[in-house]
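Reply to thread "Modeling small-molecule complexes from scratch"

Following up on the discussion above, here's a worked example others can learn from. I took a protein sequence and the SMILES for NAP and predicted the complex. Inputs first:
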Amino acid sequence: MNRPKISIYIATSIDGYIARQDDSIDWLDRVGGFGEDYGFQKHLSSIDALIIGRKTYEIATTVADPYPGKRVIVLSNSLPAVREGMELYRGDLTALIAKLHIEGVRHIWVDGGVTISQFLALQIVDMMTISIIPIILGAGLPLFHVIDKEISCRLLSSQSYASGLVQITYALGVG
Ligand SMILES: NC(=O)c1ccc[n+]([C@@H]2O[C@H](COP(=O)([O-])OP(=O)(O)OC[C@H]3O[C@@H](n4cnc5c(N)ncnc54)[C@H](OP(=O)(O)O)[C@@H]3O)[C@@H](O)[C@H]2O)c1
């Protein structure tokens, strides 16, 4: 591939929200404490960089080192700067991916609903793992926004857990 692999790994409510309207994500805790990380560490160790939206950045950086050892690129048109050790980017996303490829990045995790939909619209997402949390939030920030594309997805795996979480993984753009 002449660009890095791009993956989505995200948790959503049954009705498709990734956070409440006020950005709270404490409802994710209901699947914690089952001795299960739902493949998170495996996913984290497989990527070498993240591209996250400004809103995800603001939530993630409420903890000291949210993505240890990973290169983090924050997308924002409004922030003047980001935390030391992270990078701020505004501009063409295809150009960003090309730049990261030249710099040796091989696998990128894109995170944040608005951000994810932009990469889907560019049709450069290769893998998508969605963990469905057993809750209906009724309202919130959506995982998917309108994009002007249809994207074929091939189911790679589906797994249910004792916590009630259901995880599905797709390869995109095939099948
Ligand atoms: N459930 C989960 O697993 C999960 C995972 C991740 C995040 N979350 C939650 O989801 C929420 C954030 O998601 P979100 O969909 O609201 O937003 P988001 O994608 O994290 O951030 C959107 C912001 O990113 C910036 N941005 C995006 N694309 C850009 C581009 N091409 N160029 C420049 N800037 C760009 C813009 O920032 P500016 O306005 O600064 O220009 C935009 O307002 C948070 O509450 C977070 O906690 C949940």
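What I'd highlight from this example: The domain at 5-172 is CATH 3.40.430.10 (Dihydrofolate Reductase, subunit A). The pocket of NAP is lined by residues 10-11, 18-19, 23, 25, 53-56, 59, 75-79, 90, 93, 111-115, 118, 141 (CB under 6 Å). Questions welcome below.
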